[in-house]
Specification:
Layout lengths: L2 E5 L3 E3 L1 H13 L8 E9 L3 E4 L5 H7 L8 E4 L7 E2 L3 E9 L3 H4 L2 H18 L4 E3 L20 H4 L13 E3 L5 E10 L2 E9 L9 H16 L1 E5 L9 H10 L1 H4 L3
Parallel strand pairs: 1-3, 1-12, 2-3, 4-5
Antiparallel strand pairs: 3-7, 4-6, 7-11, 8-9, 9-10, 10-11
Helix pairs in contact: 1-7, 4-6
Length: 254
């Protein structure tokens, strides 16, 4: 049986709503669909910043630029630093438990997904490469299988200010174009990724990029692409988890 890559409809939501949806796509992955993966692309109702699960809130607040006062701030279920979503192109990929990419080391799954994105960007007019080396330390894996990369020696970062190992970068300038964070659970792998639009000014058409990226992901996964309706969660489940991600207690948990 050929694996399916389910492509969900594009949605726009609050910062908390987006995080809740991504986590529920992982948590409620139906057991009978273990041979599937899901990808979604989404927007933000308001200017928003997200930050990694383990980050300290005092450090995070110090990274938010002055011109972003009043923007939504949400703690992600995945790792990583602070991500500015005001001008980004955001996606989430869920791979069910047991797939070779889900079982791979974090650094390898990171490289594989970003190689698919790099290929898609190049096909759509944006010359790109993967950052193959990082100084001063080699790649490392953080808690929960999340990629630490170059940050293992340097501490947390603000996304798009410095490229880490296997991030997508501009061929000419080396500027960071795309980064991501991962989370593995007993259900599978959640990969949350972001492309900084100003750094990818060569992209001819973002709808075209979506199509080509999905096709490249399907190649990596050995899957067939299948456009699919939004899954039905348990009644009130998304709303309840959105409230949790929006709560001050969650945001300031560390």
């Amino acid at each position: 049986m050929t694996m399916k890559l389910e492509v969900l409809p594009v949605r726009t939501d609050s910062a908390a709503g987006n995080m809740a949806a991504d986590f529920l796509l992982l948590r409620r992955y139906p057991a009978e669909q273990a041979g599937r993966a899901r990808v979604r692309f989404y927007g933000w109702h308001r200017p928003s910043f997200s930050f990694g699960y383990s980050q300290k809130i005092a450090w995070v607040r110090a990274q938010i630029p002055a011109d972003a006062e009043g923007a939504d701030l949400v703690r992600r279920p995945t790792g990583g630093g602070v991500v500015d979503h005001r001008e980004d192109w955001t996606y989430a990929l869920v791979i069910s438990r047991g797939h070779e990419l889900e079982k791979a080391r974090a650094v390898e799954s990171y490289r594989s997904v970003h190689e698919a994105l790099r290929t898609a960007l190049a096909a759509c007019g944006q010359a790109a490469a993967l950052k193959e080396h990082c100084e001063p330390a080699a790649a490392a894996e953080g808690e929960g299988g999340e990629l630490a990369g170059c940050a293992a020696a340097k501490g947390p970062t603000v996304c798009f200010t410095r490229a880490e190992l296997y991030d997508v970068v501009d061929v000419t300038t080396g500027a960071k174009i795309a980064g991501a964070a991962q989370k593995r659970t007993k259900e599978g792998l959640l990969f949350q990724g972001s492309v900084w639009r100003p750094a990818a000014a060569g992209v001819r058409d973002w709808d075209e990029l979506r199509e080509v990226f999905v096709a490249e992901l399907a190649k990596v996964l050995g899957a067939e692409v299948e456009e699919t309706p939004w899954p039905e969660f348990r009644e009130g489940e998304h709303e309840a988890l959105t409230e949790q991600y929006a709560a001050q207690e969650w945001t300031e948990a560390r």
